[in-house]
Design goal:
This protein has ten helices and eight strands. The chain has 275 residues and is an alpha/beta fold. It has two domains: 2-117, 3-Layer(aba) Sandwich (Rossmann fold), CATH 3.40.50.2300; 125-273, Rossmann fold, CATH 3.40.50. Strands 2-1-3-4 form a four-stranded parallel beta sheet, sandwiched between helices. Helix 7 crosses helix 10 (262-273) and helix 8 packs across helix 9. It is elongated. The N and C termini lie far apart (65 Å).
């Protein structure tokens, strides 16, 4: 049995996947190609983060000692040339997956490539971060799940129809986990917010604008049956109450959203929360 195992290992062919990133891009393509063959006698070895001359020489030396074929995805033209030269000099069969494609795209697009390793991984990481942020934000809309709202990166508070939800969603698509909580005149905000003042932002708006938004809401969705919902005096009191609980910006920053775009408001909040 031991003899058979040794013989099998000797027969096994090694396919080296060399990457200046994670190696995932090359692995997926190579495995897709390998389905066209009986690959039971092939061992895949991934060598990642090969970003400079020393690492390239080291990995080529390993291949030289252990044999095998090299498939590489290196975004740097200089590194690709070095890999090709060393493999050729050492009679190592090699395939450059990125070089021909990048060169052709460079001619077609008439742009110089960035040559930055790991961009695919970064894009995937950013995508999944955005998905998590959107999922969290939807689950914490309009005061839902107060107990876990503190896990948010940003907490928006303010009166009904001030624009908390669309702003929350916009921020979520930028990768920020957001919770939004309505402020009701006369009712104390959740105590849990007191512990995280740097995350909380209080949205206010000109009373007449808020009145118009609420009247438009009634036309579309019907009367929410809230006393003073569209009364200008009552709305003014709501805004004053928001200013009071925010301690005029000394505890929770006041963000006036009147006549401003969602993009502009989001930019201000991101700058504040990143300080």
């Amino acid at each position: 049995m031991e003899k058979d195992r040794v013989e099998n290992n000797i027969k096994k062919k090694i396919l080296w996947i060399i990457s200046d990133g994670t190696g995932r891009t090359a692995s997926q393509l190579i495995k897709a190609a390998s389905y066209q063959f009986d690959t039971g006698d092939v061992e895949f070895r991934i060598v990642k983060d090969v970003t400079d001359e020393r690492k390239i020489r080291d990995v080529v030396e390993r291949v030289k000692q252990e044999s095998g074929m090299v498939v590489y995805t290196l975004v740097s033209k200089m590194n690709r040339r070095l890999m090709y030269r060393l493999c050729t000099e050492n009679h190592i069969l090699s395939v450059d997956l990125f070089g021909p494609l990048i060169s052709t795209m460079e001619k077609f697009l008439q742009k110089v490539p960035k040559e930055l390793p790991g961009l695919t991984y970064k894009l995937n990481r950013d995508y999944y971060r955005m998905v998590d942020a959107v999922d969290f934000t939807i689950k914490h809309d309009d005061g839902v799940s107060i107990k876990t709202a503190v896990q948010a990166d940003i907490i928006l508070i303010g009166p009904s129809r001030v624009g908390k939800t669309p702003l929350s969603v916009y921020l979520a698509y930028s990768g920020w986990k957001v919770a939004n909580i309505p402020i009701i005149k006369g009712l104390k905000p959740p105590d849990i917010l007191e512990k995280y003042p740097l995350k909380v932002f209080c949205l206010i708006i000109e009373p007449s604008l808020l009145q118009k938004r609420r009247m438009d809401r009634i036309k579309k969705l019907g009367d929410p049956r809230v006393d003073g919902y569209t009364d200008l005096k009552s709305i003014t009191e709501e805004i004053d109450y928001c200013k009071k609980i925010s301690n005029y910006g000394k505890k929770w920053p006041l963000i006036d959203v009147s006549y401003r775009t969602v993009e502009d408001i989001a930019k201000e909040i991101i700058q504040l929360v990143s300080i």
